[in-house]
Amino acid sequence: MARAAEQTDIVGTIRTQLEELSRDLWWTWNPEGRIPFEMLDPVLWRATKQSPMQVLDAVSDERIALCAQDDRFLDALAKATKSLEAYHDAATWWGRGAKGDLKSLRVAYFCSEYAVHESMQQYAGGLGVLAGDHLKSASDLGISLCAVGLLYRQGYYLQELAEDGATRVYYPEYDFDRMPVEDTGEIIVCPVGSSRVKAKVWSMKVGRTTVYLLDSDVKGNSDEDRELTRGLYRGEPSLRLRQQVLLGVGGCIALQHLDEPVTVYHLNEGHAAFVAYQRIAQLVKDGMKPADAKAHVKATTVFTTHTPVPAGHDRYGVEEAYEALRPVLRQARIDQDEFAELGRERPDDFREPICMTAICLRFASRINGVSQLHGEVSRDMWTHVYGCASKDVPIGSITNGVHARTWIDPDAEAFWRKEINLRLDRHTPTMDGWEKALGVDRPRFWALRSRLRARLVHFIRERLARQALRRGEGSAGVNAAMQAFSPDALTIGFARRFATYKRAPLVFQDLERLKSILNDPRRPVQLVFAGKAHPRDVPGQEYAQRIHELCKEDGLRGKVALIEEYDMEVGRMLTAGSDVWLNNPLRPYEASGTSGMKPPMHGGINCSILDGWWPESFDGRNGWAIGDTQPMQDREAQDRKDSQSLYAIIEGEMRREFYDRDGSGLPQRWIDRALQSTATVPPMFNTHRMLAEYLREAYIPAHRGGL
Question: Rounded to two decimals, what is the model's pTM?
């Protein structure tokens, strides 16, 4: 009996330790935090999309008791627990540097989606990925920041492709009790039109950063109101409008209920524009004059715009939007005419709808695009809001980055640590050390690239086999999948949203030329694609359908693959294993893009249109530039021109450098370019640098503007 009780105590202690680990999303970017859960049950770990909470929920006490007899498991658990404690106890870069009034700086970051990990489908694409990386760098650097969003019962859709390649949309139902979110105990009431919507406030711990997520799927709400947090980017525009009221107005109410001492409000895209009106309303209620309240809100608001595509900016009818915000606007003493003037791009054009971006532009003192080029495009795009020449439009730029430890393969991180003493766990805005990549041992570097490519090929085959089984293709389909791709062939990756301006099928413009490239017996090439289109983006879905059909065509079969369900895991695998990262948007519609910032950490090379972030990085030796910067009015002619440039690059330098080997079997010119990519991209294009820029250019001035 005593021994049984002792074993029960041990199991209980281990469960408690694992529970604590699972609830801090620190594990999403610290590999040692994931290892104990993977050791508990490797099959379950993969089946749950690497969800610690779901593994812990499903694993038996008997299995834990068995693991408790394994010193390796106990050592891994102890290491993870100590590492988490050390992380939270450590002095931070910002904690050491914040002096005087800056000690009270507190940022509230509003976004409609957050991509923290693939086991939580609360994101659709790049906006969410950037937001998740932003939170992690804020945590690493110790910047005082909390975040606000919505908690979606069904999240974004899961993608399946039918036999003919048509997109099949599937919405799972998420159990929040099996997600790393905590009930704060707060229920807020948010006015949305004539409704008073109740929302539960959940919190999510991302290291030192707390995310507050609103959930309207609670008892007491009408079915219509419960639908507000059912899914991400779903439903009619009227539902989107009401969701955005909940995000902006409800998010501010939640922060007040939670006594968050916020000094700066950062609106990440226009979805959170209504934050401004709720803040004005609250200040007026507290006794401030309306004009002073508006000035204070503007002084303390930061706004980041993310798209030069007009359709990417939400617009609503004046009357509809006014009715949705009427209770808030009444308290803010803003009538319908003033509301229309503040929301229209051209205030004197009475035919115009309300534009969420225009509201943000008028209520933010610090505004930025997400690359230098996007800043220029945004200044041209919004001149009519300011009534001045584009050079005088007050929109700057802070180029996006990626959170290195989220996206780097552990094998690659270990390689760089050993070769150049790179320490990604030392968190400062300057990522010193990458420049030493040029001097690494070249055979060992090529061995790393070969391992990462082989791992990607294994992943592709496994995914294709799974897709074949789901479509009923049986053993023949599985066998074909397991023969696809070669671990030794030049591998080009393309993974991103299938928005039409990103031109996923561009490489298929001249099929016969492409087939000749892919099937060269001495210098073969293979292409892997992944991506989702918006559920309502029929042309984008047709792009996926076309690529799906081409994968089955003679000359392309086994050389081209389309991976279903593009998520963070797929993104990590493709960016780590691809030799070349392909990016061919229609310039200048790629505001920044971040996927191409990830391959260089693995020795991958970019081949891209000179759009978004790439013009800031390309030096002629660290990748390739497709086409030029001279736009053509004819879209078909532009596609032909750019595809011809792409083919010439692949047929020329790309294949020659990859396949020309020296006496020891090394592609020396390829390694030169790959190491130049590694030495030049990661030091600049990371979120630690990005957050430091936000502090200097936006957060600190906005904080002091409110004092």
Answer: 0.97
